[in-house]
Specification:
Strand content: under 5%
Helix content: over 70%
Structural class: mainly alpha
Mean pLDDT: 89
Low-confidence stretches: 1-9, 99-104
Order of helices and strands: HHHHHHHHHHHHHHHHHHHH
Number of helices: 20
Distance between the termini: 63 Å
Largest sheet: none
């Protein structure tokens, strides 16, 4: 392989990744067969990996991949020789191939909204989005969610059957349903991000960031999508310091802020500003992003604007009432008004039985007040509610040792 060919080979994965989701979306629209679409796209990708290093990039990589995938789909359908296959074959033959397919096409929006349809079980929505839109393998998704590959395969199968049997339309929702359905898409992306946020590898968080960027590109006037993107960016900017070299959690006040990703913080702030110029009232994702911005832009832990953070949590509780949000507000009150005030706020909370962060927060305030015996009891309760060996469990063990446990 020549030097030019080697350089070409190195860029093929990025080119393919940029085209893949749109190509899958188009093949699903043409064939109505999710498995066939993914198989044919994979076939076109394999052919690109084999040919492009020697032949060079085609003038329009997306059109090249589309043509190869469509030919493969036609071959498969012709072998099936069924009435439904004939209809699919005609649809593929009559659909024009764009010279330069628009990566932000309606097909991609159709795919995202179908994967996140509220009639599907939430775990199925998440798995299907990661598999079909993000392009993760079944094995990768299974590892991320700590289930067997067989279990994940069955989950995907049930979800696709549900789409077919329930007649879930492959389309962008009509205007009267768009806002509600968009919130469902955002909820799936937020869940994917949350799943990855507490893990040192950052794989799922990176996929959440990529998918949320994609949604903002597709729906640039959707404030809450932009708010979620800002939130993910501002949180991910701290990833280099959230875990130490052994994989243990590092509390925010102990993190080296010089290692935070300044470019990601600046980008997150830009998206927040752009969302705010619409004049619409901030939604839950934008409010969370504004809280994250307070932390990300503070010079040090002591200069964190806790008064503003409490006000933002007040607004967030109105937008999305939740015991967990109330817990985080109580913690912010403790840092604004003093640890005793925080303990009083924690004592008022309901609906958090069995939630480890409540006794952990109580233990933290007690430790800071020097009430070590009470702190030991609180940390012990929190430890009993977390899984052994997790970063959260190890952090609680360290705190327990600090108070003589």
């Amino acid at each position: 392989m020549t030097g030019d060919h080697a350089a070409t080979a190195q860029t093929i994965p990025s080119v393919v990744a940029a085209e893949r989701a749109t190509l899958v979306a188009t093949l699903i629209r043409l064939t109505g067969d999710w498995d066939l679409a993914e198989d044919c796209v994979q076939d076109s990708v394999e052919k690109a990996l084999a040919r492009w290093p020697n032949d060079g990039f085609p003038r329009s990589p997306g059109a090249w991949l589309t043509t190869v995938a469509r030919r493969r789909a036609l071959d498969v359908l012709r072998r099936r020789q069924t009435e439904r296959a004939k209809v699919q074959e005609v649809a593929i033959m009559e659909a024009p191939v764009q010279e330069a397919p628009d990566p932000m096409s309606d097909d991609l929006l159709r795919l995202i909204f179908t994967c996140c349809h509220p009639a599907l079980a939430l775990d199925g929505r998440v798995a299907l989005t990661l598999k079909t839109v993000a392009g993760l393998s079944t094995a990768e998704i299974a590892r991320a969610f700590l289930v067997s590959e067989a279990t994940l395969s069955q989950r995907l199968l049930r979800t696709r059957r549900k789409i077919a049997h329930a007649g879930i339309p492959y389309r962008v929702p009509p205007d009267e349903l768009l806002a509600e359905r968009t919130s469902g898409v955002l909820a799936v992306l937020y869940l994917i991000f949350n799943e990855g946020y507490g893990r040192a590898d950052g794989h799922l968080s990176a996929e959440a960031l990529r998918l949320t960027r994609l949604l903002v590109d597709l729906m640039p006037n959707e404030d809450e999508a932009r708010g979620l993107l800002a939130l993910v960016l501002l949180q991910e900017a701290r990833r280099p310091t959230r875990f130490d070299t052994t994989g243990d959690l590092v509390p925010m006040e102990d993190q080296d802020r010089s290692r935070w990703d300044g470019a990601m913080i600046a980008e997150g702030c830009r998206h927040l500003r752009r969302a705010s110029v619409s004049g619409r009232a901030p939604g839950a994702y934008r409010l969370q992003a504004e809280i994250a911005e307070c932390h990300a832009t503070a010079l040090d832990a002591e200069s964190t604007p806790w008064g503003r953070i409490v006000s933002l949590f007040d607004a967030l509780l109105l937008a999305r009432p939740s015991p967990v949000i109330a817990l985080n507000r109580a913690i912010a009150v403790g840092f604004r008004d003093g640890y005793d005030a925080g303990l009083r706020e924690l004592a008022l909370l309901d609906g958090l039985d069995g939630y480890a962060l409540l006794p952990a927060a109580r233990g933290d305030f007690l430790r800071r007040l020097g009430r070590h015996q009470e702190a030991r009891h609180a940390y012990g309760e929190a430890l009993s509610l977390t899984r052994d060996g997790t970063p959260e469990h190890r952090l609680l063990e360290r705190r327990l040792l600090e108070v003589g446990g």
